[in-house]
Protein 1
Amino acid sequence: MAILNPFCFLLFFLLLSTCCVPNLSKPASRAPNRMLALVQKQPLVLKYHKGTLLKGNITLHLFWYGTFTSTQRSILIDFVQSLSSTSSSHTPSSVSSWWRTTESYRGGPCTLVVGNQTLDAKYSLGKSLNTSNLLALASKVNSEAHVVHVIMTSADVAVEDFCMNQCGTHGWGKSKHGERVAYAWVGNPIAQCPGQCAWPFHQPVYGPQTPPLVAPNGDVGVDGMVINLATVLAGLVTNPFEDGYYQGPPSAPMEAVSACAGIFGKGAYPGYAGNVLVEKPTGASYNAVGVRGRKFLLPAMWDPLSSSCKTLV
């Protein structure tokens, strides 16, 4: 499933807010109350389609395609390790507390651990990939139960539909032995579309031109990848085979995080990420702390218990 570009949602909300403003020039009457009742916000509901979810212990095999520095890899590895870390699991603003929202979906908790890592700095399939290439890369590692293949492409790799209508994706296919292979992909957007896939750390392409936030790890592209990886992984475990939790058509679903696009803190609205934490020495914005004190900015996730987009701060 693709992570739809968040600015598609932002543009929709801007248009909606413009067309639905009541006429306040007329004297007050009972009509405005009726209008307010008609446009009262409805709960956001992701329907469960009775399919299999990924629960229990899940191993993530990481495939680094292209050129990544050791610092860039460490940021992303620290994020993945933070998802199921127990060292700060009871801290409200920890990465693991963000991930625990997935426990509220059917089937209980999902624990993620880093498995094998593969480096492909020679671009074995070239610098322009399509969906079939992603599945081929995922299938290079032996498939087994409770395994997900996570492919990360560097800034100089073009991927089908990247920056057009997605910042990452997850999907599945079958290996040569007929086993189901689940995979996820995110790319570094810094050279191709930072205004679309690294917002709010870069000036947006569309909508309100608010100043960008300071990336917590000093790398706009990789901090943007963290947001997109968080979105993909949450969608992957709650809708791995297109019959889990989602709203809308299965070909372009709104999933656990993509249904809450653009929301990072309370008070968020189109073009404004919301009230988040700011590190005083650097001015970096974040809302979650992971292993080794690493800071991240994570998007809101839909909470089945409240039928709303849940933020950490």
Protein 2
Amino acid sequence: MLSTGEGVLLSIATSEAMLGVIGNGFIAVVNCTDCTRNKTISKISFILTGLAISRIFLVWLLISEAYIKIVSPHLLSSINIIELISYLWIIISQLSFWFATTLSIFYFIKIANFSHYIFLWLKRRINTVFFLLIGCLLVSWLFTFPVAVKIIRDSTMQYINASWQIGMKKNELIFHYAFINMGIFLFFMIMLIVCFLLIISLWRHNKRMQLSESGFRDLNTEVHVKAIKVLMSFIILFVLHFMGVTINIICLFIPESNPLFMFGLTTAFIYPCCHSLILILANSQLKQGSVRILQLKCSEKEKPHDSLEEK
């Protein structure tokens, strides 16, 4: 039986999960609708749609695992369920962060202004960059899956006295956990580098504007600032998400750790919930889509009122 505090945290986490599903579902629907209307799909639309769908699956995976642990933790003692959750986690989490990293790289190449030959090469060969990033994702899976299989096969897990007993040394478990998430760490490092380069690009652009004695803030500066805000928000939310997921994994081995588990769950769901909202506000296409939906809802509410007045 959950305490009042645990119930409140679970309710917050569930609400965050539902908001994350709604927000990401909206992003996917708007992009799919535009692609159907235009009969073409751009790389940005493909990345945004993939990011939204992968996050929806990530949210459902986390919330399903959480409710299983709370309601019927003995189900997790089955090696088949552990395997399924582990493999799904590797695929979905890395795919989600790959889409987010790819989106940031594409915006960086589009917005930043460097004269270095490597940057100019990347700018001219955007398709090559895209396939290189796909290669990074496949290599990450290639290295991660064998380690995950080894952990599941070699360790024996049992649910005893409201905690998990695992037949593996703690140092070895930490090492394997870090190695499994190496792909996510790699994408996170790329995100940091991209954010740093955007800040340098903004600084250089402002310096040129000062030398030209321009007294107004141009469009290029606004675009730089908006992109940096989106990237910084992603980095902060990602750190919170990873902390929450790490807390949840640690709680599997701590007796009676439901309050800490609920806190980790609530922290983990901030990322898919808030970042989808940030993307909607930062992307003009998504913002226009949200405005159209609000206008449709308002017109639907006004129609019954108008028909009553006519009568």
Protein 3
Amino acid sequence: MATLLRKIGLIRLHNRDTEDPKHHHNHRGGGGGQQSASLRGKGGGKSGGHKQQQQQQQQQQQHPGGAGDASPGPGKGKSKRAAELAARDKQPQPAAGRRGRRAPGAPGAGGGRQGGAGPAVAAAAAGGSLVPAARQQHCTQVRSRRLMKELQDIARLSDRFISVELVNESLFDWNVKLHQVDKDSVLWQDMKETNTEFILLNLTFPDNFPFSPPFMRVLSPRLENGYVLDGGAICMELLTPRGWSSAYTVEAVMRQFAASLVKGQGRICRKAGKSKKSFSRKEAEATFKSLVKTHEKYGWVTPPVSDG
């Protein structure tokens, strides 16, 4: 047996030694080429796989969650669809919120405008309540400053034409004493004969004075004619809103009144019983409103007797 094995080994060695060297070399070279080619293929495959991994990593960094979409699987399609639905739901939410704020419970563009105007209207209503208060305060300041100046000017009059007393210490309610009228008039004679030292008038100043006229009426004595009407109301155009100017002062108004008394031939009433009856404010206000309405209809001319 050993002898047989040695023979077989000798035969193999003989065949190897007698083999063509070129063929043997080519065979070895081809094997090496195949081996190198396979090695290159493996190396290229490795390098290509490495590049693919880098590209996938970059895609994952740029688009998170994209790697899951690139490789399909049983749950990947559902996750992609869910992501699309979530993205679509997120986009219209701000617009829907705006519509809801503009028109809560009311569809349509018109309802949206009404809903959006709601807070603005509420803010305007809240702010509107502050505007009259501020305006009233401003008017009160203007009126007070003007009347204080009027009192100072009257106190400095040298001829003592008029004097002022505040009613209940109110700056906006005056009793004014007219001490002088034309000394050549019958009214002046009546004052001397009846020992009347002055004609007493009442002036009340509205909130928007001096841009509106004061309400002025005669208190005593009881006068006839001279454009003095029932209740002591005075028929003078400059005491109406149409004839008034903020430039008029109390002194100027009183001088105009004294002139109209004389022009209208005013007299002190001496009739028994009637001369004792005092004028009332309510009657004066009603008479003044009536005469203003009449003069607005006919102008400041003598109206027909039928209109009073």
